[in-house]
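re: ur question from the group chat, yeah i did fold both. here u go
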Amino acid sequence: MLTMLAVVHWSHHKLPEQRAALYAVAVDYLMESRSSQANFTSLLRREALQALALAMFDDSEGLQRSYGMEGAAKIVRKILGEADLQAARDFLEDETLFSGLLVSQTAGEVEFWHLTFQEYLAALELASTGDWRELPEEKLFADQWSEVILLLGGCLRQKNGVRAAKKLIQKVLATGHDQPTKARAVGLAGRILRDLRPYGGDPAAGTEFGPLLQEALAIFERPVPIPRSFPRSSASKSAKRSARRATRGWTTRRNSGWICPAVPSRWAPRMPIRPRLAMTSKHMAMRHPFVQ
């Protein structure tokens, strides 16, 4: 894939910013570079591969990375207009040799060279046929369809303009019925809009994306607790605390707060009160016999 990006940059001197546009350029380059070895036009070959990619995604057993040659030939025969099944097999064998999109790593089976090409071609097929309108809700949010849905937004925007992309956004948002499903729908719509940003415009304009986004974000906000009673002022608490301490014999000194309980008068030291160093326990014992 990195080699392919380097080749596209070398041939176009610039890489497209949008993913669907980038894959479109890469697929067109591979188709055109080997058109001389093919028996069909590049457009018809791409349409046949689109149908095959979507069929591999829409298989009854889930996503298929490889497909049997017989089943793949039946799918592309309808696009090529060939009545002979062998002609469809020959087309697939030629594509595995020359296209660079289709490979055959197991005898009797074909697969896409990279899963990204399979996802892009499946999304392009949905956008071309309009079958995306019939996609059920479980496929919109399935993990294996995730990249297809994102690329579908780019394909619709590139082929049919901003109004087609808006319809896809509306379809995704319509799947929200309660808070979890609304949050899921907003998440997918946001990813599609982020992928469409390089095209410009606002496909979310006129939709319910904005209100639903605010409703989904409210899930993560912490509720403000309602106080059971009004808080009392700090001044009243301080006054009550001072009154309680005064009744218990505590005294105060200027700018120092509460210091110690008041000493009874018969135990008070007979000495002038003047600033001096704190007395040691020995001095206290000498002056106050009751101090041990």
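okk and heres the other one u asked abt
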Amino acid sequence: MKKFLFISILLISIFSHLFLLSTKSYAANLRGVCFIDSKNGWIAGDYGTILHTADGGITWKGQSTASKEYLLSIYFVDLKNGWIAGENGTILYTKDGGSSWTIQSSGTSEHINCIYFIDVHSGWAVGDHGIILHTTDGGSTWVFQKNNITYNLRGVHFTDNKNGWIAGMYGTILHTNDGGKTWIVQKSKSDNHLTKVYFINANNGWIIGEIGTILCTTNGGITWTLQKSDTIANLYGLHFIDINNGWITGRRGKIFLTKDGGTRWEEQDSRTISNLEGIYFVDYNNGWAVGQNGKILHTEDGGIIWKAQNK
């Protein structure tokens, strides 16, 4: 009887452990999301979490990687080629849609907070203590780009292989018009930490940050204007589909929509109080937001209704 009881307890312990292992990645905080079309998308998060969907999020499946780092940013240029950046200099690359992920050598142990590519060859990554990395061969080699910033850099976005912007701590905004050979400081009119940057073209762009900060430019950053957000929440996720329509996510489930380029921002009901760190739309209707404790939200009507998706 004692032997049977011991075996039963042992089996329960083993299955409980396996269950925890199988669900750990899905309960992790999710940091970034990227979709190629209304069906195919990927999410990156803590503890090496990578999720993929081929049906618009009806089902999400984990993808394997050797990394157990916090993965902070993800970007795909097509159905096959994608990159992920994370803590301790982590850069991952896939050439088969995530069926396999390989580690690329970033040359740094600093946290890499954001990664962005304009095609399968040219990309940039930014991180702590002013780190700016650039590749022209899809990440086979990454080189450091010189700048005079020592603050943490949080967001990067390019409109072509020449024009790009970076956002970071203490209101830092950097701009290049030569692919990063030179980076010039732009005046942000804010001392708040900035988290994300997004440009629709070489003139029109937005930057978000802590304490409800939203900045806008219509001249490539020569001047930046503060936009009214009506929130003091920290803002984390930013995405526009055209010069008028864009969304922002933030602390405690905040989601904001603009239909006029940010002249007015309207809060949407996310139905969650979890921090939402990433957002991506493929058109005016279909979008996804991801965040704390494995939260995945989806909308089919531009955010009028947000629904949780199962992992």
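fwiw on the second one: Confidence is low (pLDDT under 50) at residues 1-25. The chain has one domain: 2-308. idk if thats what u expected
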